[in-house]
């Protein structure tokens, strides 16, 4: 449990994917004030090097809604390592199966935590910018 002020306490699960993630389960990701709560958790004394913060809503055993506050960046549309960390936290807390679809603001990702311990992520790769630069 993480207390960020006298009125707000969050049950958290912390996972490392090579970078730190703090996952909290919420009833509705759209109603969470990510811009307010995200930086408070990111900079909490429990995380001396700061952390990424994932807010996840379990829809059913195969689907998760997801929003993320990335360490040093703010809210982003997607985070691959965060989606993987979210699945691990959900499985460790007996909330989902080991293979789920995660609905991020930037699109869906299919995440699988295989029995051999590996994590597999499948999703679209799209060109979002093309340009030229003179050096």
TrEMBL record:
<protein>
    <recommendedName>
        <fullName>Diaminopimelate epimerase</fullName>
    </recommendedName>
</protein>
<dbReference type="InterPro" id="IPR001653">
    <property type="entry name" value="DAP_epimerase_DapF"/>
</dbReference>
<dbReference type="GO" id="GO:0008837">
    <property type="term" value="F:diaminopimelate epimerase activity"/>
</dbReference>
<dbReference type="GO" id="GO:0005829">
    <property type="term" value="C:cytosol"/>
</dbReference>
<keyword id="KW-0413">Isomerase</keyword>
<dbReference type="GO" id="GO:0009089">
    <property type="term" value="P:lysine biosynthetic process via diaminopimelate"/>
</dbReference>
<comment type="similarity">
    <text>Belongs to the diaminopimelate epimerase family.</text>
</comment>
<keyword id="KW-0963">Cytoplasm</keyword>
<dbReference type="Pfam" id="PF01678">
    <property type="entry name" value="DAP_epimerase"/>
</dbReference>
